[in-house]
Amino acid sequence: MSRDPILTFRLPLPQRDTSPNARVHPQVKAKATASMRQYAWATTLSALEGCDFPRAARQYTLSLTYCLPDRRRRDLDNLFSASKAQRDGIADALLVDDVVFEYGRIARLYGEPPGLIVSVVAA
Q1: For a pLDDT cut of 70, what percent of the chain falls above it?
Q2: Is 110 helix (H, G, I), strand (E, B) or coil?
Q3: Is the distance from CB of 42 to CB of 92 less than 8 angstroms?
Q4: How far apart are CA 62 and CA 119, in angstroms?
Q5: DSSP of 49-65, one letter per residue?
Q6: How many Cβ atoms from other residues are within 10 Å of residue 89's Cβ?
Q7: Packing angle, helices 26-48 and 84-93, rounded to 10
């Protein structure tokens, strides 16, 4: 029985300026969005090096765990929305449009070193 290949890597938490509730100038938001997308693209490419993870597949399951540094209340929907640019960067590196993503577990962890853990699983 073969298992689907899994690609796991860490990204920083979304920048505050990309939150749906942020009231910032559009250029500030665009700059934050572009840098997050570029970083996610480069991190995904780095994780792909030396492994046989399939690119340009028809479907991927993406699971996200937001590791938060403290117990302040954060809306999971807002975290997910703020990380749209990162999901786009992952899709860019996999040579797909992000519509091929099916979402698995989306969760929060508290008291962990800050970062967004992303697991991409080929389906």
Answers
A1: 95
A2: strand
A3: no
A4: 6
A5: TTS-PPSS-S-EEEEEE
A6: 26
A7: 40
* 67, 116 contact by CB (below 8 A): yes
Using CA atoms, how far apart are residues 53 and 114, in angstroms rounded to an integer? 26
Q: Which tens digits make up the pLDDT trace of 20-67?
A: 888 999 999 999 999 999 999 999 999 999 888 888 889 999 999 898
What ranges in the chain are assigned the alpha helix state H? 26-48, 76-82, 84-93
Q: Contacts from 20-29 at CB under 8 Å and sequence distance 24+? A: 20/78, 20/81, 20/82, 21/78
DSSP secondary structure code for residue 76 in this structure: H
Token digits of residue 16: 């505050």
Mention every residue, 6+ apart, whose C-beta is less than 8 A from residue 65: 105, 106, 107, 108, 109, 116, 117, 119
The amino acid that residue 33 corresponds to is T
